[in-house]
Amino acid sequence: MSDFEHVFDTPPPGAAADWTISQNWRAYTEEEHQTWDILYARQMEILPGRACEAFLKGTRALDLGGGGIPDLSLLNPRLKALTGWEVVCVPGLVPDAVFFDHLANKRFVSGQFIRRRDQLDYLQEPDIFHDVFGHVPMLTDPDFADYMQAYGRGGQRAASLGKLDNLARLYWYTVEFGLIEEAGGVRLFGAGIVSSATESVFALEDPSPNRLGFDLLRVMRTRYRIDDFQQTYFVIPSVEELKAVTLRDFGPVYAALDQDGEHDPETILATDRVFTRGTQAYARKGGRFAA
Ligand code: HBI
Ligand code: FE
User: Fold this and answer.
1) Distance of alpha carbon 157 from its chain centroid, rounded?
2) Apex 238 CA angle, 198 and 250, nearest 5
3) Per CATH, which fold does 25-284 belong to?
4) For the CA atoms of 241, 244, 247, 252, what is the dihedral angle to 10 degrees?
5) Which ligand is nearest to the CA of 168?
6) Cβ neighbours of residue 184 closer than 8 Å, sequence gap 6 or more
7) Are 244 and 250 in contact (CB under 8 A)?
8) Could you tell me the distance, in angstroms and rounded to a whole number, from the CA of residue 270 to the centre of ligand 2?
9) Pairing of strands 179-182, 232-236
10) What is the pLDDT of residues 136-153, one digit of tens each?
11) Ligand nearest to the CA of 124
């Protein structure tokens, strides 16, 4: 984790016991507000027709555009009225247990800082643009909000059963990098995709990655890459369906995982529902935004 600047073992000075800090909205500089506006305008050029309806509806309901970095004291009442969730600021990545406890209590944690101008296209740590623009619109969807709360509740249990890596894959391939089937075709909903200009196009249109139907056990067995575009994206049939398959007891799911091995990120199985059989050309060229 040494390449993360905003990572700590204990709440840093100024943070509360639950790791939250004040957004201190007045302290953002004009340049930082402009960074938000640039990123927002760029995504809103790309996302209509690509992002799912729930995400686009969420951005409208929360009025995220044009006024610089959102002031959470204004955003939270709108979000709370829709699903009971709120956004709280943290200094950076927080320990898993802290993260789960916030989710279980309908609090989504956001980095307080925004990326620098030389990091507009890529940074590995979650900043406020990724967290608020990427994640929070979907939290206006009641089914998605329930799914996130269930993830928080399930986190501690997964950790105690030694299944946290498996549960984290579910989060990765849905909350961060999920695709969804809609009437008009496959659309984006994962926050890691919709907050990235390049991945918003790659995930949906590039011939390189596989696009496979979501299957809970299959996803939990599949390793992922944290530092590059995904080699496989999974397509959920609907948020309701995702919620339905994940709101049950994961005890039997975890037991089933022990019966079989893991899959590499690019593997396609005979049992997969294949939307796209990827060429993997991008990954073979070495990835990390290879031309
Ligand atoms: N902390 N701030 C922050 N944001 C995250 O997305 C996050 C985190 N800590 C742990 C974590 N995510 C994941 O590793 C868990 O889903 C397992
Ligand atoms: Fe994220």
Assistant:
1) 21
2) 100
3) Phenylalanine Hydroxylase (1.10.800)
4) -100
5) 1
6) none
7) no
8) 31
9) parallel
10) 999 999 999 999 999 999
11) 2
Taking the domains of the chain in order of start, what are their residue ranges?
25-284
For residue 95, give the ligand 1 atom closest to its CA: 9
Tokens read off for 86: 């709120």
Runs of H (alpha helix) within the chain: 30-46, 53-62, 72-83, 96-104, 128, 142-160, 164-171, 191-194, 197-205, 216-220, 239-246, 251-257, 281-284
Q: Which residue has the tokens 């609090």?
A: 107
pLDDT digits (tens, 9 = 90+) for 35-44: 999 999 999 9
Contact 53, 182 (CB under 8 A): yes
Gap between the Cα atoms of 86 and 79, Å rounded = 6
Ligand 1 atom nearest the C-alpha of 167 is 17
Angstrom distances, CA of residue 133 to CA of 40, 41, 45, 259 = 8, 11, 14, 39
Cα(130)–Cα(193) distance, rounded to whole angstroms?
9
User: pTM of the full predicted structure?
Assistant: 0.94
* Residue to substitute in 5, 87, 96 for testing ligand 1 pocket (most ligand atoms within 8 angstroms of CB): 96
Q: Smallest Cα–Cα separation from 1: which of 95, 68, 83? A: 95
Mean pLDDT, range 227-253, rounded to an integer: 94
